[in-house]
Amino acid sequence: MIRDTLIEKLQNTQHLVILTGAGVSAESGIATFRDALTGLWGNYDAESLASEFGFLADPALVWGWYEWRRSRVLRAKPNSAHHTIAQLAKQLPKLTLITQNVDDLHERAGSSNVLHLHGSLHQPRCLICEEPYTFPDEAFPGNAIDQKSRIKPPRCHLCDGPIRPGVVWFGERLPAKTWQQAQEACHHCDLMMVIGTSGVVWPVAQLPYLADQEGISIVQINPVITSLNAIATYNLHGKAGEILPQLYAAAFDKA
Question: Does the reported pTM lie above 0.90?
C-alpha cells in the first residue's frame, strides 16, 4: 500500500534522486552480472572476465563475453519502470538519475543525463590512450552473438591499442566526475528512491546513507528485504515495473 504521506512528498519534491540497480534491468530480461556467468562462461571466475588482467590474458574471450551481453541488451526493451522514471523527470522540477546498470534502457525510455556509475556496454574505449570507440551501425547484422563467441576486439584508430569494454572492472575506480555528481545530488535532494538494488556493492551502497545523514526521506522499491530496509522511510515491496506506475498515477494522474 502506498501511503498518503509518500504521495504528498512526491508531489511536492523539488529535487528527486533515483538510484537504480540490476533489479530494474532484470525486469526487461537482462541477466545480472553474476547470472551472466552461465553456460560457457560458467567455467571462468568473474575477475577473469571483468579485469584488465583477464582482458590482457585473453582479449577475444573477454570481448566476446561483453559482446554477447551487449547483444542481449540490444534485443531487450525498456520496461514500465524505465518509462515511469522518464515521466517523473518531466513532471518534477529536478530529477537526478543514477544507475549501477551498464545498459542503455533508461536512455531508450527517454531519460537523459543518466549518471552511469559502473560505465556502459555501449561506450568502449582504447585500453592504451582511452580514445572513445564507436560501434559500427551493423554491429550485429543478423548474426546472433552466442555464448561460444570468441571475438577479437577492434583496434584504436589513434594508437592501434585494443578496444576494451567501457565498464568499470574489478580494481578500478568509479568515474570521478560521475561519482562526485552522484554524491552531491544525494546531499542536496529532498527525496531519494532506491530501486532494484541490494545495497551491498560499495562504494555505490554509500549513497543512500549520505541522503539519510542529511535527514532526506528514502523510498526503497524492491521485491526482497535488503540492508536498506533499516534506513528507508518507505519500503515498497514488489517489482519496480508494477509499483512505480502505481505511485506515479496516485501522485500525478488526474481523475
Answer: yes
All domains in the chain, ordered by first residue: 1-29+78-119+174-255 (3.40.50.1220), 31-75+125-164 (3.30.1600)
Around Cβ 24, how many Cβ atoms within 10 Å?
Answer: 29
* Nearest of 16, 24, 196 to residue 91 by alpha carbon: 16
Beta bridge partners of 13: none
Backbone φ, ψ for residue 206 (5° rounding): -70, -25
The predicted-structure confidence for 196-227, as pLDDT tens digits, reads as follows: 998 888 899 999 999 999 999 999 999 999 99
Let me know if 19 is exposed, middle or buried by CB neighbors in 10 A (0-12, 13-18, 19+): buried
Block residue for cell numbers 518507505: 234
CA 239, CA 178: separation in Å to the nearest integer? 27
Catalytic residue among 82, 83, 116, 118: 118
Assess contact for 144 and 150: CB atoms under 8 A. Answer: no
- Sequence-distant (≥ 6) Cβ neighbours of residue 153 within 8 angstroms: 59, 60, 63, 162, 163, 164
Average pLDDT over residues 91-118: 98
83 is annotated as an active-site residue: no
CB atoms within 10 A of CB 53: 11
DSSP state of 153: P
State the residue for C-alpha cell 560521475: 178
